[in-house]
Amino acid sequence: MCPVNLNAVALKMKRLLKYFGQCVFCSAILLVLLLFFGCKEEDKTVEDISKVQVDFSVLRFDREFAQAGPNDIPNLKEKYPFLFPEQFADSIWIAKLEDTIQLQLSGEVDKTFGDFKKETEDLESLFQHIVYYFPKFKLPEVITITSDVRYNDRVILTDSLLLLGLDNYLGKDHHFYRSIQRYIAKGLDKQYLTSDVASAFAKKVIKYPKNRSFLSRIIYYGKELYLKDKILPYTLDAQKIGYTSEEMEWAQTNEEQIWRYFVEGELLYSTDSKLDRRFLDPAPFSKFQLELDSESPGRLGRYMGWQIVRSFMEKNDIALEQLLNISADEIFKKSNYKPKK
Fold this sequence. Notes:
By secondary structure, the chain is mainly α. It folds into 3 domains: 6-50; 58-205, no CATH class; 214-335, no CATH class. It has 17 helices and 4 strands. A 4-stranded mixed β-sheet has the order 1-2-4-3. The radius of gyration is 23 Å and the shape is globular. The chain starts with 5 loop residues before the first helix and ends in a 6-residue tail after the last helix. InterPro entries: GldB-like. The chain crosses the membrane at residues 19-38. It holds the Pfam family GldB_lipo. Keywords: Membrane, Transmembrane, Transmembrane helix. It comes from Flagellimonas pacifica.
């Protein structure tokens, strides 16, 4: 069945009925027509995206280094100069070839990712969608590495390179992550890799707000997540935001209560920087300062911003690139957002 946006269909139908009157027969005919042409439009978009040509390569530096010997270091340095800082002598890299931890990391990455075929296909789909919506985007050269589990730098996107630290995606219960806080470790799973790449791209095209209000910041993250809706259409919402399925269900179930807390507490236009730590930054849970805190997932402010942006886009005929430059106040006012009950 075609994934038609029913809210958008309802909005169009409401507009058309102004001209045709409240006729039940007309309503039925209009609904059928809107669903039909909505499917056609969705199908056309999917077809157009599938035709987008993306020519990129994935270089498995992690494997090349794991299989290298001391005599191969000069060739690797020539091929990947940006991965070999000049201040480090060759002896450092030769010693790393035989380092026990490095050998274990390489082995675990190989066990988890194998030939990287599935991930390459996911990246191809992501790049097709990005190029479709952002034709000026230049495809980066993708290079897989091990990074000694530097999870804060697991994905690095520059104008020409995409570095993926695969040792940061071995699964939340991997023994390499035992000393890492659980709320961080749960995101160190390969199911989140493509979503993390999408986040890195989002930072390139969405400006962080100068306005210090809480609303402007939740809308900023809402734009990022809505962008993922468009460039990762086959990815679960939980994966887009970095939640487990249980955390996603909690957010959806409690959306009305979260919104009431934000509104009644007059948080939307507050400039209190502590709100970032409570509702936007990665954390084991959100901080309502209530008994339910321990049950909640972190970053619920981002989730709420996402729902506001979705509501705005359902009610307004705006291109994706236009959305990214619209102010938070305008998005909020024109969203007529009402939480799900």
